[in-house]
């Protein structure tokens, strides 16, 4: 493999800034036109989603969007950390440096996260999230360019993610290929997303059930269309 294995999720990984966790080890396009059509206007208030929602409902004839997952959030560590002698570091800059700005997303060893990988569809977009670092948050967007296939690292005894219980005829673990799409217009920190999440929990906004806070230890997380659109709208706002 052209670069060291670096993502992981063993069911117990979390960000440094999550309130319920100790320091832990973590682990579009569909088209520019689609991005523009689904992207909500930026608002300055923490509950500005209400005006955005009203506009979205008007565009859709007043119908609520179904709670289906069509976007994702992928966590990776931008700072060096050795695991069995292998550096887990893999930032978005490392992705940009890969041939064709594409990599396989390997090393996931949590069953729920693996199932999310297997649910990913070609062309779907995901946020690239820097985790287990001084200031966690969203730094860019990637897209799925190859759907789930067996993760070869599970069979490599020299790899930190080797799994002696997995068999080639029935592999336990999967990976996908992702490709860099673009950087977000600004860094969107976890603290800012959390402030919106807390506000939305109180008044029913789109981030009220965001898995980044309800299942924060997972390195692979699904996003509803509303969650993705709202978070993406934050890149247009000035940092608070």
UniProtKB/TrEMBL annotation:
Pfam families per record: EVE
Keyword annotations: Nucleus, Phosphoprotein
InterPro entries in UniProt: 5hmC_binding, EVE_domain, PUA-like_sf, THYN1-like_EVE
Region entry Disordered, spans: 1-62
Keyword Nucleus: yes
A Gene Ontology cellular-component term: nucleus
Keyword hit for Protease: no
Coiled-coil intervals: none
Subcellular location: Nucleus
Domain EVE: 71-233
Domain of life: Eukaryota
Residue ranges with Basic and acidic residues bias: 10-38
Role summary: Specifically binds 5-hydroxymethylcytosine (5hmC), suggesting that it acts as a specific reader of 5hmC.
Record's protein name: Thymocyte nuclear protein 1
